[in-house]
Amino acid sequence: MTKKQRKLLNRIIIAAILFIAGMVSPHVLPENQITGYIEFAVFLASYAIVGWDIIWKAICNIRQGEVFDENFLMMIATVGAFILGEHSEGVAVMLFYQVGEWFQSYAVAKSRKSITSLMDIRPDYANVERDGKLEQVDPDEVQIGEIITVKPGEKIPIDGTIVSGISTLDTSALTGESLPREVEEGMDVISGCINQSGILKIKTTKEFGESTVAKILDLVENSSEKKARTENFITRFARYYTPIVVFAALALAIIPPIVTGGSFSEWVYRALTFLVISCPCALVISIPLSFFGGLGGASKCGVLVKGSNYLEALADTEVIVFDKTGTLTKGSFAVSKIKANGMSNDALLEIAAYAEDYSTHPISQSIKRAYGKEINNSRVQDVQEIAGHGVSAVIDGRKVLAGNAKFMNREHIAYEPCNEAGNVIYVAVDNKFAGFILIEDEIKEDAPFAIKQLKASGIKQTVMLTGDNDAVGRKVAAKLGLDKVYTQLLPADKVAHVEELLQSLHQTSSKGKLAFVGDGINDAPVLARADVGIAMGGLGSDAAIEAADVVLMTDEPYKIAIAKKIARKTLAIAYENIVFAIGIKLIVLALGALGFASMWAAVFADVGVSVIAILNAIRALNVKKYDVKSTATFAKINYTGNLNCKTI
To answer: 32: exposed, middle or buried (C-beta count within 10 Å: 0-12, 13-18, 19+)?
Structure first.
């Protein structure tokens, strides 16, 4: 609880005690004029303690020409109640109004906490070795290419590459991932992570202003400036609504007694009751709070949404378009199939790994990773790499050829062609075909689960756009269950296809949105063109992250489904509050104008509705962390849907 919240709570408690004392005083003191004065003084003291700031705000706003707001409504309604002799009701209205304000303050602080917790990732200093000494300097002073030292327990201040050291990093503040990440020499690391164990020396690759942590903080600080349509509606509604109800209350106080000859005091009381009921606090407070809570809930799961307007658009998304490499696939090669001829699959893999040992090509690296054992270089002789064909080597005295179909044809070796999509390495031993190894770009562990969850959440069409060849693209799309796939595309082609999909969507849906998910610099134009651009922040390029509206701080597609669920829940809560607040107010306004609702009913219609709406809005924040699991865990559960993300 903040100091300001504590002060308001103390005022409410003291005022409530005085209010109770004023209510019971006629029953414990003798009935005389002095008792009446004491009762009035107690109520006035209670009112002054709990309501002085509201009165002062109303007076200051009137001086500045901003008359019609909730402070003005509360002031004239409660002061009018005192003038009419309804002291207890005047105090009760102000007291319960402040209770509602305290609930609002508490709710905003709670939702803000989840977002501003990201501010803790801002590093205070960087350790730089200068003149043989380790100095603590401001991160802004560190140049690209300088070596910084990060000790255990310290935050990594700037993006860079590890030049020495082995450690584990706590990335939870950035990604929502609870499992630590192991890092070693040669790996890239991003700012904002906490070094947990060993000492790391990092060569900076960016200036602090361009580093991950600085960009994230900028996104968070500016996210609330971009309002959703629902929020803008409430702002416009309140601007016109307040003066209308003030003049309606004035007419209610003057016209009926003149026309009917009734008591002015009775109609003034009804008008004051009408004003209290009409206060639009529930709408003005709870709707922005709903979206703020949604932004906070998303940030808990490692999803940064750059504004509530994008959260609303995400809730309305019906078509989602994916890039392939780095988005649905890992962008790295892995052995997917081995078919040996005249030997075991293990023996074929061993021969291929030895033949490819001296090559740095990604395909060669994938074969060695699949083999997974230490290679004895003494067994390998006469290694030759033939550009565009493959590798020739003598292993244990036998001549081994490993390469593509052109290599086999060139060496006049009869082989069994592989017709599956992917990169095929054919292997021959002593000029006889020994089998083939199929290598493919790995599909991310959580990608099938992500597509399944997105379709369950209301996505009507899933599409993949890729520059890869047709066979590979269609194979990946079939494995993931995507609805459409377009292959062999240039960046401009992707934009053209998104334009076509947008046109088709707008012909069939009045408010449906299209989202594009990508990670590379070539995806930036498409991210900017889509209704909602979603970038993979973990390995994504700076251009993609800048162009996107939503940034996933890990490269896990399933978080898109989580973000959509949060968006839908947030929008549902906002609409619930609008219908509830306006519905209750219209009913009680009518009852108040007809004399069937007292000031106490007005208290419920104003403060009660506000508190209920605020408590409902807090649910947008309560995402229960969604149990943000690692991809390793996804592999273990085999996409059974047992994500254990708490109910949204």
So the answer is: exposed
